[in-house]
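Tutorial handout. Part one gives the primary structure; part two gives the three-dimensional structure as tokens.
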Amino acid sequence: MFGCWYEIDGEDIVIYQFFRPTRLPISKIKDVKKTSGYLATAGMSHLRVSISLTDRSVLKSYAPIEISPKDRDGFMTQLKSINPNIEMPTSRA
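Part two.
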């Protein structure tokens, strides 16, 4: 009913959950990796992308955020094109 969706808006990822946007500066992303699971996060699918940030103040936590974009590979490629310093470790998910 309330939904969750994401978009890349210039230099930010905007995560809308319960109609409240959270902006994550792409310049603060340390690494992005594929993951899977059904943890209660901002992702709607079990095929997710785990995003770790370099700056704790962005989310007030060092814990990664997990989202589930429709095209994980395309989403990760787009992030890397905006911030080439993002690490993308290989994963089995």
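Part three, for discussion. The longest helix spans residues 72-82. Residues 27 and 50 are 16 Å apart (CA to CA).
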